[in-house]
Amino acid sequence: MRIDKPAVLVVDDDRTTRFLATQALEQSGFHVEVAESGARALAVMSRLSPDVALLDLDLPGVDGYELCARLRRSSGGRDIPIVVMSGMDDIEAVQKSFRVGATDFVEKPVNWIALSHRIRYMLQAGSAARALRRSERKLSNAQRIARLAWWEWDIVANKLGASEEFYKTLGISEETFEGTYDAFVRCMHADDRPQVCARVDETLAEGGEFSIDYRVVRPDGSERIVHQRAVVEVNDVGAPVRVSGIFQDITERIKVEREVRQLVYYDSVTGLPNRKLFNERFNLVIEQARRHERGLALLFLDLDRFKRVNETFGLAAGDELIRSVARRLLESVRKTDSVTRTIPEDRAPTVARLGGDEFMILIAEVEDVPHVARVAERLVQAVRRPVSLEGHDIVPAASIGIALYPHDGTEPDQLLRNANAAMHHAKEGGGNRYQFYSEEMNRSMLERLILENALHRALLNGEFVVYYQPQIDVRTHRLVGAEALIRWRHPERGLVPPMQFIPLAEESGLIVPMGEWVLRTVCNQSRVWRELGLPSIRVGVNVSGRQFAEKDFVRTLSSVLSETHSDPAYLELELTESMIMSDAEASRRSLLQLKEIGVRLSVDDFGTGYSSLSYLRRFPLDTLKIDRSFLAGIPGDSDQIAITKAIIALARSLSLKIVAEGVETKNQLDFLREQDCDEAQGYLFSKPVPEVEFLEILKTGSVWPGA
Ligand code: C2E
Ligand code: CA
Ligand code: CA
Questions:
Q1: Atom 17 of ligand 1, nearest CA residue
Q2: What confidence tens digit (pLDDT) does each residue in 22-46 have?
Q3: Which residue from 24, 48, 300, 621 lies 20 to 30 Å from 642 (Cα-Cα)?
Q4: What is the C-alpha to C-alpha distance for residues 286 and 306, in angstroms, rounded to an integer?
Q5: 248 lines ligand 1 (CB under 6 A)
């Protein structure tokens, strides 16, 4: 039993003294144990370890000196204050007491009140010392048990001292160790040294402490991972004098942690994240989507007729099939829509196996619904390739159900349920397909698919035509140029305007061959006009962002120009403001290359995006086209008048030609003339017209309003 109060052992053969001592000391808050002889005292000691012993020197049997010496040798009495009491007023007794280990000496008769104060002070001083000794002992035990190595680097003397565990961990002997900081650093893994040294330097400069994990290499070449904490000590003026640190060998722990992690979070057949890890990620990703107001897609994939594989070929073959499907899924989520690039692993969609033949694909960075549809289509295609099982080629198939956040649900459970329902739908439809949870998504995706196929066919069947819209000199009304605008002559739907198919063509990549076709058509047309003896005019061709970003664009353009024997000076490429500003540095390089070929460059839809003036100045541009939305407000809207004026002034200052688009009224034309705008294009002069009609305009050489 441990008593909260400090315990005092009083040893005296005199009953009265024992009584008085007990009275006084208990009143002062001590717990008191008494013994009337040395033998009794030793017996009490073995039961209770007192904090202080009070001994009468003159005892029967074992006398006070003897008792004191024996107490000092016992484990409980080694560190406690021992006060001896004696009526004998002689120096010799005092000296003898101190020789056998007494801490203090009091004369009888004792002043108990004074003594109890004295004991209290002794205890206070003693307890600090005892605590320190105790903690030192504990520390060294703990260090040994925890395999904690300790080191201390005296910066001034450049000496490094260390504990036994330090040498053991590093696999070196104390005798051969050089004992410097550099020698210690040499024990670290070469790849980790820079990091560790940087942290040490940093802490030396800023003070304080740091912790870091790094690898050490033993002389036999084996590696250990250690976790280190170190602290910098400074002198009176703040200069670092010592760094001391402890490190712990955590190699096993890390290994076990990895193994446990693998077991807990990954599927043992495929190595993919399992249901548990998937759920954790799913919650996290939904949280992020909520925070950033982004969309996210959950794809529930289930193999078609997987049970049959298991039944026919056995479980091992089933696992083999699951493994190859897993590989294919991983491969295809890392592919982007362009063939050349792959998505870095940490940003690719998560693929997890829920068990059986069920997989989950989580797309965290959803651009739009068609993007999800393309990924799903790719996954369906990837699964549908032959696998060889036990000498038989089988062609697996998968059904995928898709739920979209937030459209089809905002909670994980709801999304899972809906993706699962959509997957069953896909199966009912015959499998080997994907299906959105919402009907409207399915419908719009189907329409897109049909349109995309039709576009492909249109290019092959020559269903596209180019219309031309005249550009007129504002003052003279002379024809100075034209803009080429594509049209689709759909066999059933008639003339389809570009806004209904250009966006899809851009997404599917079809815009690239389509744009090349427009360029070629325009160049050929210009040559025909020239051969007819008509004056050459500048023709603007719209270039889409996707085309412009294509690394072959410059080469394609120059081969079209040379194949059609065209003069690049009459070809003007129209690039939208947002397109060239999105990556201004890269645009500048491309524009310079295009300028080198000799074509003219114009900024289309100017005023709708955000232009950096400094870039605008550094781009090799020729023309600026004011977006027609500004003209629409003229003459009524004072804001738009002000903006249009400002754009014209800006273009002037950059020495660019200005073409106003969408000029529909006489008022607008008057305004443009007043503002000193160069050219105009719009219904006021002419709508875009087919080539045969444009030929007539070209022959006339000028267009008057309302013509
Ligand atoms: P854009 O480059 O801004 O072309 C001008 C559009 O304004 C044309 O529409 C034209 O018909 C229309 N427009 C011309 N004058 C007026 C007018 O006075 N009032 C009104 N309200 N509109 C006028 P369109 O031909 O339907 O073309 C639409 C867009 O499609 C074009 O806008 C361009 O971005 C794109 N586009 C057309 N052809 C091609 C092409 O060959 N390649 C690429 N990449 N894009 C094209
Ligand atoms: Ca244009
Ligand atoms: Ca435009």
A1: 662
A2: 999 999 889 999 999 989 998 888 8
A3: 621
A4: 31
A5: no
With contact defined as beta carbons under 8 Å apart, do 654 and 617 qualify? yes
Residue 303's domain is classified under what CATH number? 3.30.70.270
Number of domains in the chain: 4
Q: How close is the Cα of 484 to the center of ligand 1, in Å?
A: 9
How far CA 625 is from CA of 85, 173, 467, 616, 704, in Å, comes to 111, 80, 19, 13, 21
Q: Is 544 in the pocket of ligand 1 (CB under 6 A)?
A: yes
Going from the Cα of 605 to the center of ligand 3, the distance in angstroms, rounded, reads 4
Residue 483 alpha carbon to ligand 1 centre in Å: 9
Nearest to 321 by CA among 369, 405, 265, 385: 385
- pLDDT recorded at residue 432: 94
The verdict on the CB of residue 486 being under 6 Å from ligand 1 is: yes
For 66-110, how does the pLDDT look when each residue is reduced to its tens digit (9 = 90+)?
Answer: 999 998 888 778 878 899 988 766 778 888 888 888 888 888 888
Buried b (16+ CB within 10 A) or exposed e, 449-468: eebbebbeebeeeebbebbb
Examine residue 170 and state whether it is found in any structural domain, yes or no: yes
Decide if 662 is inside a domain: yes
> Rounded to the nearest whole angstrom, what is the distance from the C-alpha of residue 541 to the centroid of ligand 2?
7
Atom 25 (ligand 1) nearest CA? 485
Rounded distance, CA 458 to CA 232, Å?
75
Residue 503 Cβ < 6 Å to ligand 1: no
Please tell me the predicted confidence (pLDDT) of residue 1.
45
Written as six digits, the tokens of 657 are 């030609």
Looking from the CA of residue 541, the nearest atom of ligand 1 is 41
* Amino acid 2: pLDDT: 47
Mean pLDDT is lowest, of 121-135, 524-538, 574-588, 614-628, for 121-135
> Which of 557, 661, 689 gets mutated to test ligand 1 (max ligand atoms within 8 A of its CB)?
661
Do both 163 and 130 map to the same domain?
A: no
- Calculate how far, in angstroms, residue 642's C-alpha sits from the geometric centre of ligand 1: 24
**Residue having the nearest C-alpha atom to atom 13 of ligand 1:** 662
Counting from 1 in the atom list of ligand 1, the atom nearest the Cα of 688 is: 11
Average pLDDT score over residue span 548-562: 94
CATH value at residue 465: 3.20.20.450
Does residue 287 have a pLDDT over 50? yes
Residue 497 CA, closest ligand 1 atom number:
26
Q: Which residue has the CA at smallest separation from atom 43 of ligand 1?
A: 542
CA distance 405 to 297: 6
CATH code, 223: 3.30.450.20
Helix (H, G, I), strand (E, B) or coil at 638: helix
Q: CA separation (Å) from 211 to 8, 195, 197, 258?
A: 46, 12, 12, 21
Amino acid code (one letter) for 210: F
- pLDDT tops 90 at residue 660: yes
Distance CA 600, CA 654 (A): 15
User: Is there a contact between 613 and 577 (Cβ–Cβ < 8 Å)?
Assistant: no
For residue 207, what pLDDT is reported?
82
Counting ligands in written order, the one closest to the CA of 662 is: 1
- What mean pLDDT comes out for the span 142-161? 84
